[in-house]
Amino acid sequence: MATTVMVVEDELKLRDLVRSYLEREGIVVLSTGSGAEALHFAERSPVDLVVLDLGLPDVSGEEVARELRARYNVPIVMLTAKSSEQDRIAGLELGADDYLTKPFSPRELVLRVQAVLRRGHASVTPGAPLSYGHELEIDEDRREVRIRGDVVELTPTEWGVLLALAGAPGRVYSRYELINRVRGYEFEGYERTVDSHVKNLRHKIERDPAHPTIIQTVLGSGYRLGLRRDP
Ligand code: CA
Fold first, then answer.
1. Which of 45, 124, 176, 208 is 20 to 30 Å from the Cα of 2, by its Cα?
2. Which domain holds residue 216?
3. Beta partners for 131?
4. 10-residue block means of pLDDT along the chain (231 residues)?
């Protein structure tokens, strides 16, 4: 089935430009300039990724991102005219999987979109699922995570973080390492954004997110998987 991307951008020229670049890659594009309509679209038809402008005329991009995050696991690539570091971090804390500041090259956007989509479907080593006691099972082929027997839906970034940690249980990964593992290209270096993805991940997988046992924080260093892999 063709990949479907929703483009939410109120600048018509930019929206059409992005649409034509994505369509050239064989991607089906739904587009709108309204945040409310974007949420309506998302409800009616499944999309594989959302390209979302932060500055929308009706519902703010932040609000749209929050709503999408609360209801779906669809990856989000954010666009913004704001360029201060604080704004970027705020966007990523909403759970965006990537971020581009205007003006950007449409070609770069296509590459980022493709990278995020690939991450979502990444299958590193085909084979039997990895299991960690009764707590966690990771099936890379099916891109499926089971927590205490139940399938849990993760965003591409959450999947990448968990997969990196699970690849070497007990090993401490710095935030920088995790960003590099997950993003696979030069990232602008907001290591704190890892924390927000870990926080979201913990809410999905930990019995008590306030006292995590699966993804442990190692103060001053980073994160590690607190489970042992079954032999
Ligand atoms: Ca705008």
1. 124
2. 130-225
3. 137
4. 89 94 91 93 88 92 88 88 67 78 92 86 59 90 90 90 89 83 57 85 96 94 92 82
**Nearby residues for ligand 1 (ion, Cβ within 5 Å):** 10, 53, 55
- Cβ atoms within 10 Å of 130's Cβ, excluding its own: 17
Ligand 1 centre distance from Cα of residue 53 (Å): 6
Q: Give domain status of residue 230, yes or no.
A: no
pLDDT computed for residue 124 by the predictor: 42
Q: Which of 100, 121, 142 is the last residue of a domain?
A: 121
Q: Which residue in the block uniquely carries the two structure tokens 């930019």?
A: 14
Cβ neighbourhood burial of 120 (10 Å; 0-12, 13-18, 19+)? buried
What is the Å distance from ligand 1's center to 214 Cα? 40
Crossing angle of helices 175-183/106-121, nearest 10°?
A: 100
Pair (10, 113) in one structural domain: yes
Residue 231 lies in a domain: no
Q: Which pLDDT score is estimated for 125? A: 43
